Structure formats: structure tokens, C-alpha cells
Amino acid sequence: MRQPIVMRRSYVAVAATLVAVVLNVSLRAQAPSGQPGSAGVRPGSGVFPPTQSDDNTGFVPIFDGKSLQGWDGDPRYWRVENGEIVGETTAANPVKVNNFLIWRGGVLRDFELKLEFRMNGSNSGIQYRSAEMPDVGKWILKGYQADMDFTENYMGNVHDERGRGVLSRRGEVTRIVDGPTFKVVGTIGDPTLLRGAMNVDGWNQYHVIARGPVLLQFMNRQLVSVAIDEDSKNFSAEGVLGFQMHTGPPFKIQYRNILYRQLGASPR
Asked: Using DSSP, how many helices (H) and how many strands (E) does the chain show?
């Protein structure tokens, strides 16, 4: 006897819910991977070569863990504490305009960046290949941003600060062409499930790879978004690195284990 269609559909709904729960738990179980783990370690077989986990070979630390030497930002918001860069706003010391702690150690072109962060509220982001805007104010940047926020609404997006807005949403691969026109090339995963890649209550690793127009963003080893920027008017081939201090309610953000690897020519 065939099961009623409604019952079969209910089984499918339950199965889908279970898969979603398992995937979400799996993503949330991921820990910051500043220390290489066993992910990706497999023996070779047939046409498949052996693989190993990515490591930090070729990366250099750009924060000494003791001071803001080599960094430039508003001292009202930024300090070093317990081996971490700390950005903090309070009710008595709010941010009126988004501003940034800028790395003065070089110009980013093709590069990789790995860092760990923890936040207790609001919104922030990692600027890269960005331009300073002295006519707007000191420590103001525009350009590419690896977005993050405590509610995970924007987490993982490739954002263009003071520019075109969101270039690629979490879970998508997007090509940007002249216009600008945004073309979704494909998907990485469900954007709601990919929220689970971020540990809201603890430390996370952000990993950014930029090669030419291709921008890849990973959260705790999970690829979360890709932008292919072929917009000839707005594409940025080089610029500075910065950490955002965002307007809004008081919050605190911490950074540690900041590792940089240049790809290709040395920064000037």
C-alpha cells in the first residue's frame, strides 16, 4: 500500500531538518585553526595523491603581541592587552564615523591573511586593498572588507566599504562586471547554515586570499564567499589593511595571531 503523499512529504521535511541540524552542529564544532589540524590529511590512492592540511609556511606575524608598532589608529579606541589588539567603544566614548586601525607595514596586492578574532557585539570587518580617505577624516578607509557581525547577518560577506555595498553574499560565488552588474556564478552552501561557521561565543579564524580579481574568504576553514571583481572602474589591485571600529552600540573586538603572506612581488 502506497503511503499518502502528505505523509511522504512529512518524512522528507523531517529528514531535511535532521540534515540541517547535523550540518549546523558540525560547522559550529569547528575551532579556530590558527594551529594546523588534521583536516585534509588523506593517504594517496590510485589517481589521488596524498593530501595534508594547510599550514602557515611562508606567513609572517605582523603584530608583535606587545605594542601597536607598525599600526596606526585612533588611540581612544585601540590598545594592546594580554597579547591581543583590542578595539573598544563605550557609552561615554562612542564611534561617530566608521574608522580603522591601519597596518603601515606595506601595501597589499596579491596576498593571504590569517587572523583570529573575538567580538561581543555590533559589527566590524577586515579591510584589504583599501584606500585612505583623508578628505573625509583620519583613519577612514574604503574598499574590500571581510565582513563580520555578532548577529551573523553579514558575517562572511565580501563587502565594499563606502563603495558598491555587498559584492558577494555568504554562500555564493559572484562575478562583478562593469555597470556594476552582479552575476551569481554558483553557490557554496546554504547561507543560513553557513552562519554556523562562526563561533559567536569564542575565537574564530578569518582567512582571506586575494589573487588578482579573485577574493576568497574562509571562516574557521570553511569557505564562506567568493567575489570575482571584473568591474574595471571599481576593481582595486592594491591598498592597505585595516580593522574596523564600527558605529553603533558599545562593543569590544579582539585580534591575535595575525599572519600575512605576500603572493608575488614584495610590497613597496
From this structure: 1, 17
Distance CA 61, CA 63 (A): 6
The rounded distance, in Å, linking the Cα atoms of 110 and 214 is: 10
DSSP classification of residue 115: E
User: What are the sequence ranges of the domains in the chain?
Assistant: 1-30, 60-262
Confidence of residue 38 (pLDDT cuts 50, 70, 90): low
Q: Give the span between the Cα atoms of 37 and 52, in whole angstroms.
A: 9
Question: What would the pLDDT profile of 105-117 be if each residue is shown by its tens digit?
Answer: 999 999 999 999 9
Question: Rounded to two decimals, what is the model's pTM?
Answer: 0.85
Nearest to residue 68, comparing CAs of 101, 98, 93?
A: 101
Q: Does domain 60-262 have CATH number 3.40.50.10140?
A: no
Distance of CA 238 to the CA centre of its chain: 18
CA 141 – CA 66 distance, rounded (Å): 25
